[in-house]
Amino acid sequence: MAVEKTFQEINERIKKGQAVVVTAEELVNMVKEKGVTRVTSEVDVVTTGTFGPMCSSGAFLSLGHSKPRIKMNKVWLNDVPAYSGIAAVDAFIGATEVPEDDPLNSVHPGEFRYGGGHVIQDLVARKKVLLKATGYGTDCYPRREIETEITIDDINEAILFNPRNAYQNYNCAVNLSTRTIYTYLGMLKANLANAHYSTSGQLSPLLKDPMFKTIGVGTRIFLGGGIGYVVWNGTQHFPGVNQDDNGQSYGHAGATLSVLGDLKQMSPRWLVGTSMLGYGATLTVGIGIPIPLLNEEICRYAAAGDDELYAPIMDYSDAFPNLNSSNLGYVSYAELKSGKITVNGKEVPTAPVSSYPRAREIAGTLKQWIQKGDFLLGEPVQLLPNADAGIKVNTLKG
Amino acid sequence: MSSKKVVLRFGADIADQPIIYKLVKDYDLVINILKANVNPQKEGTLVMDITGVNTEQGIEYLRRLGVRVQSLTEEIIQNEEKCVSCGACTDICPTGALYMERPDMVVRFNSDRCVVCHLCVKACPMKAMEVRF
Ligand code: SF4
Ligand code: SF4
């Protein structure tokens, strides 16, 4: 009889310290050796991980009241502006925000040495951060300015809230033009001289549950070194299937997650301020998601290896900026990780921008948490829309 | 025996002379060329590693010929605390000094191969590659 498990059954086993947990990397080999049926009955949870730059990240900070009170109208943290149009002493610091006097790309390529992502890393590192705020003065909030040092422990709440993280799959970026270009996937040399990609392939969370059979609102995850939750689908969540011109399928892509957690328990090792030359500042985020092996179908998806997962090759000098979806074919993560691929008949060196060793560490840490009984699976109260939902992409006119 | 990294710049007038041969033959030096470039005006730049007891005499010889010799006092280091092994520098580094150890995909730095071009210093998203004087 086919194996069917429930979240509750697996959580009971976790509580008793009996759950069998393996990383996605380990699962790939196990299924090759023993087959799906046996592995599904033997293994309870598979852990995944990814560690790469994730722009749509940020933190809500509830800064606390001063004496006398101020209604903060403008807020800066280490000179990086935070959005304060929420409430009197609440602010949202976005990962890609940069100081107002940043030269940006005026001397191309700009360095973007410090931005919102770096502020978030300094906060979790428990460093002192300079808070400046101005207000217009009201009867109940009379103060007009404040300048003080804070640490994350001095303020009331710090909540990491990332509206779009953990992209299911990503482009392999190349540059067909004759000049070097600076992208969010790093520096791409002219004339197809290198290729950059960014997922952890066989360890990557949303490639392992591509149809959202287990991940949904309420899924408990490893986030930034602490515990977080999937709270919604991410923005620009366009789950679909990659296909080439002949209709050949190259796997799932396009889904994203919205995640949240208590920044105070996270760590600077897993939230790293990031400067993409010529592009901007961002935050590199560590995310790990457990996938319960409820049945064989889930196990089969989770067991996909680097040789079965593909990324589309995209030209970032023309096709990408001009929103032209045509690509230069597909390449497997096994090929990408080998260090070279062939594009348009040319051998091209590859490099990732997301860290595979760190992704592996995340999957391993999450595995330990679950084995120790510290981390129970969160059963989603609602699963996320998958490729069958037929979500359409809107683009702006103008 | 310790080696010395130098940058040589020479004009078109001497670009055709067997300079390296002389260093090896007459001064008994071990030469390891890390980077060589001749521009369309026939002016050359050479980054190399010199090992041997007669290093100073060899450099004196180069200077007499009109070669500008600059010692590479700047050094690039990899801040291992900051490096996350993302890999973004490995295909940017022109000499393979930054490379990926497979299959673990850990990024390593071999300073012997570094020619201090600074490309990684700019390209590293974590600012983990640092310049030391
Ligand atoms: S780009 Fe920087 S962080 Fe990434 S591997 Fe290279 S040195 Fe390390
Ligand atoms: S400075 Fe950086 S990029 Fe240049 S050779 Fe040295 S390690 Fe490679």
Automatic annotation (TrEMBL), chain A:
Q: Which InterPro entries match?
A: HcyBio (IPR002708)
Q: Which Pfam families match?
A: HcyBio
What lineage does the source organism belong to? Bacteria, Bacillati, Bacillota, Clostridia, Eubacteriales
Task: Give the highest taxon in the source lineage.
Answer: Bacteria
Query: Where is each Homocysteine biosynthesis enzyme sulfur-incorporation domain found?
Result: 19-377
Protein name per Swiss-Prot or TrEMBL: Homocysteine biosynthesis enzyme sulfur-incorporation domain-containing protein
UniProtKB/TrEMBL annotation, chain B:
Domain 4Fe-4S ferredoxin-type, chain residue ranges per copy: 74-103, 105-133
Please provide an example of a Pfam family that matches this protein in its UniProt record: NIL
- KW Protein biosynthesis (keyword) present: no
Q: Which UniProt keywords apply?
A: 4Fe-4S, Electron transport, Iron, Iron-sulfur, Metal-binding, Repeat, Transport, Ubiquinone
- Recorded superkingdom: Bacteria
Query: InterPro entries from the xrefs?
Result: 4Fe4S_Fe-S-bd (IPR017896), 4Fe4S_Fe_S_CS (IPR017900), ACT-like_dom_sf (IPR045865), Fe-S_Ferredoxin (IPR050572), NIL_domain (IPR018449)
What terms describe the molecular function in GO for this protein?
Answer: 4 iron, 4 sulfur cluster binding; metal ion binding
Question: This protein is called what?
Answer: NADH:ubiquinone oxidoreductase chain I-like protein
Organism equals Desulfoscipio gibsoniae DSM 7213
